[in-house]
Amino acid sequence: MPLALLALAIGAFGIGTTEFVIMGLLPEVASDFGVSIPTAGLLVTGYALGVVIGAPIMTVLGTKVPRKRMLMLLMGLFVAGNLLSAVAPVFAVMLIGRVIASLAHGAFFGIGSVVAAELVAPDKKAGAIAMMFTGLTIANVVGVPLGTLIGQSVGWRVTFGIVAALGVVGLAGIAKLVPELPRPQGVRLRHELAAFKNAQVLLAMAMTVLGFGGVFAAITYIAPMMTHIAGFSDGSVTWLLVLFGLGMVGGNLIGGKFADRALMPMLYISLGALAVVLALFTLTAHNKIAAAVTIALIGALGFATVPPLQKRVLDQAHGAPTLASAVNIGAFNLGNALSAWLGGVVIAAGFGYASPNWVGAVLAAAALLLAFLSAALERRDGTHGTVVASRTSAERRTAVHH
Fold first, then answer.
1. Of 46, 316, 317, 390, which one has the fewest beta carbons inside 10 Å?
2. What pTM, to 2 d.p., does this model score?
3. Rounded to whole angstroms, how far apart are CA atoms 157 and 396?
4. Per mean pLDDT, which range of 142-151, 231-240, 283-292 is the poorest?
5. What is the Cα–Cα distance from 370 to 377, expressed in whole angstroms?
């Protein structure tokens, strides 16, 4: 594996850290700026919406410049956003910084995946892409808990300063190690947009929004939930995030393993189990051991949906997967934004810090229903397609005969 993949993995590590670390630091940020926890939750929502908007826009812009240069520009944007967050004098400025950083997220993973695949032999493409995404998974096991610990001990501004420094390292690595790659040719925006006329592509993205939204409804407010209800200390939130990260890594590996064998059954099992576990979290949140186990399960079940959902989009948009793939990354973050906002609404309404778990359970159950609907439509369209194909073939034979 070329060293250029290490540079991409470092960038992915920084992006993963800045996306998730805010959840463990919400109480500190809220206290520093004098805002409520639900208001501080807008830092999650704002970042997620920035990814939703930035993924397609930056991906389209990325077709106009060489890929290496685009990756460097994206990392520069990421560094600038995190620096602004670190020095923000008021809450609104920090929110702007979060949005600026988020604009790089979707396109970096979309374009970075293509670059990683081009750096190696054809039989090593999947391994190269996995190598880059390893940075994201490690971020949730090491970067997020460590960033939370630093933020709680020294100050959250230091955490975001360190993340910006990671971005600089990633930028330097890309500049030094990633070779010059030609600007992609033959990319037509109209052709890419045509994929969104496919109902199955839209259903897969809706499943992404709702399924992953279920995870973030609970995890966004994990710090106040665990300290106020389960009775954990502030410092324990770090280790709870480690458990969540380990669950993510395990679930991602399992989801990837079984997505190629039985994609839809994998979705049925993971989404159904996720809905049940999130509903149970309203009860297990009152016990330290049960809460810790539940958090790990939420990470595992939530990320077990990621490979099959991403593959589902790529399969259904097989003629023009680039933009659809980037938009699906945005769909994950749209789910984050939706659930973070809904979780803040139910907390602000006085239902308590455990109430977002019910929101998550409903969202995951809705995603499961969409999975059943998608499979039913596929069976119907598949049968119809066979009939049409047979009829067309028969018509061709008749025309030749005449």
1. 390
2. 0.75
3. 69
4. 231-240
5. 10
pLDDT digits (tens, 9 = 90+) for 18-73: 988 888 888 899 999 999 988 898 898 888 888 888 888 887 787 778 888 989 99
Interhelix angle 236-259/263-284, rounded to 10 degrees, is 160
Q: Which two tokens stand for residue 71?
A: 């990756």
Quick count: other Cβ atoms within 10 Å of Cβ 64? Answer: 10
* Cα-based torsion angle of the residue sequence 202, 110, 5, 16 in order, rounded to the nearest 10 degrees: -80
Task: Give the separation between CA 15 and CA 170, rounded to whole angstroms.
Answer: 10
Rounded Cα distance, 75 and 69, in Å: 10
Helix, strand or coil for residue 65? coil
User: Which pLDDT tens digit goes with each residue over 346-356?
Assistant: 998 988 899 99
Tokens, residue 175: 């500049």
Instruction: Provide the 8-state DSSP code for 66.
Output: -
What is the widest separation between alpha-carbon atoms in the chain? 84
Q: Which residues in 31-113 belong to E strands, given as ranges?
A: none
